[in-house]
Request: fold
Amino acid sequence: MLRDLRPDDIETLVRMLRAGDHTPEEAVRRAIGAYHVLVGEEDGRTRGFVGTREEAPREFDLRIYVDPGFRRQGLGRRLYEAGMARLQGPARVTARYRADGLAPTGGPNVARAFYARRGFEVWYSMDELVYHGGRRGRRGDGDRGRPPAGAGTRPAAGAENRLEIRPYDDRYFERYIRIVGDAFEPMRRGKDFRPHNVFEMNDNPERRAYFLSVGHDIFLAFAMGSGAEETLVGVGGVQGNFIDEVGVDPAHQGQGYGKALTEFGLNLLLERGYPSPRTSVVSDNEPARGMYYRLGFELAQTDEWTRRDRSGK
Reply:
């Protein structure tokens, strides 16, 4: 039987997902709340679910999970058909599944084949990383105006005393969204993440108000000149225990600023009481992966994304 999600289902779905997934509980709850969910029941017990979410006009994300003990019995197929029936008109549809050696029963090949039979093609994979170490860098170097709850970090070798990391300031809104857009555009264009440059998505009063409301979680890196001049060269942010959107202006990359921003984020989360900060990186982004591993991050899991056109079979 398939039915709509009820409030008393949420704890069950959280336990199901976390049994085979390293995603923190807070993020799992947030994800469940973002999807339109149908629950699959067998013998009066919840055995799986399908969630759909509109990511952009005519583009949808599909999430299916079936209890390992009830796989290969047709429940996944029924959940898939019910989820797809909710989507209206031609659209890109994406789905993800765990794709590393510790994936639950069946492993990534079974999930990959399930979607391939339905017209999906592998798109990209994402590494989820976790940090179990202590503070990075040294308090007091280049951290004038640091957020009250977070310590500054010493820039990478060769950049000492030339970088200051400060809290977000609305005066830098346009420069901030431009750096975020330009820093990630090559990767987004290469993977066909839409929009390719998120500047156009962020350049509006609503997003400006949002960034100001979460300014305590955003930090800006300024390169200091020999005089009084300064240049905003990079940005970073955190969400919960997650380091997100560390980006450096393409004109200033390769100078250790990304490492300094990541260290700052780590220290900020450790001071906020998160013992195991996390981040994620596209699996074939070797420069970023290398930096994270050198800083002490470890692989927690790899997720693979697959996609198809809604007009397919």
